[in-house]
Specification:
168 residues, mainly alpha
Length: 168
């Protein structure tokens, strides 16, 4: 059995492998693009859950509730975490601004960006997994390599995080 953080890292690492060599696979297999996006969102979802559980903000069972779109609503999870750690934001707690400015922007777009909302919804409804997408249901964050690096950084920082200062 693998830990949640190992799973989060595995999803991000798998997305990175799809970019090798030089994005040729994704460029030639267009149906793999939604799967690539799904891997990145799945990694972020798992990382958020690890943060919430380790910081004793929510239990694993609580994170599966309808409030969080049965555990797949990354915006809803992030918003609920932010309510508990206010005035901080989970993005800034995990990826401090210094040295992570680009990653912060990418993760913010994935979690809260209006432009990315249709993709979040496609993820929740599992449309990305089955590549059953209509027009406008998939958005890409510019720079696939930077996108993967940002999600990897988020998972890696969660993995090395100290959550003792939270709610405990």
């Amino acid at each position: 059995m693998y830990t949640l953080i190992e799973s989060a890292n595995a999803h991000a690492n798998s997305a990175k492998k799809l970019l090798e060599p030089n994005g040729q696979f994704l460029n030639s297999e267009k149906a793999a693009v939604p799967i690539f996006v799904n891997l990145l969102i799945q990694s972020l979802e798992i990382s958020l859950k690890v943060f919430a559980i380790e910081a004793k903000i929510f239990t694993s069972d609580e994170l599966r509730k309808r409030r969080f779109k049965n555990g797949h609503g990354i915006k809803e999870i992030a918003d609920a975490i932010n309510e508990k750690i206010a005035p901080s934001c989970v993005v800034d707690v995990v990826l401090p601004t210094k040295g992570f400015a680009i990653s912060n922007a990418v993760i913010r777009e994935m979690l809260f960006g209006k432009r990315f909302e249709p993709t979040r919804n496609s993820y929740c409804w599992r449309k990305l997994t089955y590549v059953e997408l209509g027009k406008g249901e998939l958005q890409i964050v510019d720079g696939a390599g930077q996108w993967v690096d940002s999600v990897q950084s988020f998972a890696q920082e969660i993995d090395s995080g100290d959550f003792s200062y939270k709610n405990g």
